[in-house]
Known about the structure:
Layout: E1 2-7, E2 21-24, E3 29-37, E4 49-55, E5 67-71, E6 81-86, H1 88-91, E7 96-105, E8 111-122
Amino acid sequence: MKLFLEISNEELKSVDINQDLILRAKNTNVLDCFFISELGTVVDITGAKIFFTIKNKSTDSDNDAVLKKDVTVLTDPTNGEAIIELTASETAALIGNYLYSIKIKLSTGKIYSVAEGTVCFRKELSTRES
């Protein structure tokens, strides 16, 4: 799944960062993230850290998150690309709807919220393997 994520200096309320996701439980899910500026240009994310968090409800603390991932190995940072990979074991117990957020901390120390919304983990329709 490709996500185009805008790093903006605007206030959070004025930037539409809502992106709902549908993923498969008990599967490896790959979120291919492309970071762009408000002008549509690529943002160099060299040295950045990406925070991916899934919670049951918005009032849960980060410590109570269902899943927390920190991504520091970036696919092509000079071209603003990173992959968030959720493994089959990480998604095994996730069935139904949750809330998620993606934040990025640039090497400058600035932190941006770039995506949030509902993530729905669906069961596999078929369990056939041969």
